[in-house]
Structure prediction request, 803 residues.
Amino acid sequence: MKWEKVMGLEVHLQLSTQSKIFSSSATAFGADANTQTNPLDMALPGTLPVLNHAAVSQAIVFGLGVGAEIGKVSRFDRKNYFYPDLPKGYQISQFFEPIVKEGVFDVPLEDGSIFPVRILRAHLEEDAGKSVHDAIPAHTGIDLNRAGTPLLEVVTEPDFRTAEQVVAYLKALHALVTYLGISDGNMSEGSMRCDVNLSLRLEGETEYGTRTELKNINSFRFIERAIYVEAERQQDLLESGQSVVQETRLFDPDNDETRSMRSKEVANDYRYFPDPDLLPIVIDDETIERIRDALPELPAVKRGRYTTELGLSQ
Amino acid sequence: MAVPFETISSLAKQLDAGYVSARELVEDAIARTERLNPELNAVIALDKPGAIAAAEKADKARATGATSPLLGVPMLHKDIFCTHGVQTSCASRMLADFVPPYDATVVKKLNDAGMVSLGKCNMDEFAMGSSNETSFFGAVKNPWDLNRVPGGSSGGSAAAVAAGLTPMATGTDTGGSIRQPAAFCGITGLKPTYGRVSRYGMIAFASSMDQAGPMARTAEDCALVLNAMAGHDPLDSTSADMSVPDYSAGLEQSIEGLRVGIPKEFFSSHLNDGVAATVSAAIKELEAAGAVIVDVSLPSTDLGVSTYYVIAPAEASANLSRYDGVRYGYRCDSPSDLQDLYLRSRTEGFGEEVKRRILIGTFTLSAASYDQYFMKAQQVRRLIAEEYQSVLKDVDVIAGPSAPSTAFVLNDGSKSITDMYMEDVFTIGANLAGLPAISVPVGLVDGLPVGMQLIGSRFGEAQLLNIAHQFQIRTDWHSLTPDLEGLTG
Prediction:
């Protein structure tokens, strides 16, 4: 029996805006806890989100960069769940109508070939804060500096079959967003976070198997290892007649294993609904064209030009 | 020395003429509040030093030539508006000790206009209620009959104005919370168009319907206050980016030929006979002033209540998630773990009605019932809005009762929860459709005030105020006051 890995990726890109997506607080990394917060970031009563249009422009730049369709009307929704680092008890995200729709992103592989990755969508959302477990003895602290940092979540179709393809995609994505100046792509600071949805199926099979979601793997090296380890685990289960449980798992590089975080079956019903505090984002063709005209030459275009015009190899 | 029950426009003249100072007015208002409030329970936070300082500042400004009809006039805020440095509880145990580090835009605008805020008014907890009985600080009594409710949720504001504590108090209206208490207490209350007044710093109940407005003795005073309250606010994305007209300018216009639509559904079986007769007489008065009365129909009126009680709790269930015991507000004693912290803080911090609505909203948004309830309610909401828009193409305004009855008795055990929700049957349409509406006093039934509601087109506040003012020129119902002399506190 030969097993095939099927993987789709969700990448959270922290956009490089000066201020947060719905408040005027700064987004710089590494400041003292809770120094980059205002009443809105702390979800004090009566505060209201106001959209930072720089985040919208950067999302459009990204969409054009991966050849995707831009949603003419996109909306914000509330994703409801309780967690101490989520001050409002809901995250403002785009569930029903994302700003970036389908596209195809051409990823160069090491052998010189092009691997087209289908982008399903990319949507704007706000980041959560952080729980701090070592600052106050016997207590958990909450640092809301990161709460409200603009994120673009880029979701692909389950197009990946090998860890090499995944890494190549992430490297190309990293190169694209840093080149376009919309994210610093710094994985160790969390500016680029990757979740891998992975399932196995027998080669030739057309149905997908049950997947697990590998969370927040913060280096290219760990991604390859995490995929390898999780695929081995799933294969052992399947070959011994057991089944894979749909759940979120965390890669532990120290012990070289993945561990269950929470079961999706008991996971939250997020009760998404349109956020009544924010107006729809309406983008006209003129705006899209203006942003397109200001784009630098895209890596894929440049690659094409170098190979055809200058006769350089891939 | 000013007497209670004066209007803002009258006080402004006296202040300008130097007959009275803002300091004297605020001291009188504080003294009257301290005398009457122990019985009424309309005010739940009194900021004496802040009020006296603001009055002195207003007197100084006037002495150096400043003049504005609101400068130095005492007022109260519903305790849903964040007031910098002053308790803002939303009448909930959850926020009983919360002191905001900022002002709501409405508070800031009225401060900037020189109004003198005495403190905060009681209300239904998180604005959820139609009787002011859900307040953590206890029920408010109706100044017209201390055994009766003042209405809700802005019941403290309505009772404070009716009792002559201040000539104006702010209110908010999500499903009738300005208009119904205004009707029950015999005062004038305006709910502006959704988006006319900023919601920033106003504690959210149902964000797509919440709207702040003035509650005062006359339409003329409501116009003066709305002039200062209204306008675009960069801090509220849903506030309308439109210029604000002078609402006082058109009050004296004749209403000759104005078309007033009377929806037959507003005179249905829900309506008390005495209220029906009183409102009909008021409509005759509008006709005598030259208005043309037209029969119209809003067939989906009865669907409004169920639509509202899906959408409002859904939005509220998310809006109230931030009260989790983590950062501020009520926190239970010695939680054993995170789940326990959430569970007990919210169980102990919220009252019954708030918890009921959070549960309803959580249910209607859940994956299994979203399409059946939330989506369906959004569709009916659109239908109701279209009915209003279509009627308002034919008539200038819609008129009818503000509430099905006069003020009911406190702790009325015979009233079920759904009976209580039916209190909003005539007011909810304007919220679902985002339209402006005003309630004006039009008479008494068995010694209790009755309100007539006028609903206008989007941003048609000036017309509503004009009609209400013209009615008030011809009638004295707004000048009636309850007898409170027996109350000595």
Remarks:
- The interface with chain A takes residues 81-82, 88, 90, 95, 98, 100-102, 104, 199-204, 206-208, 234-238, 314-315, 317-318, 320-322, 324, 326-328, 338, 342, 362, 365-367, 370, 374 of chain B (CB under 8 Å).
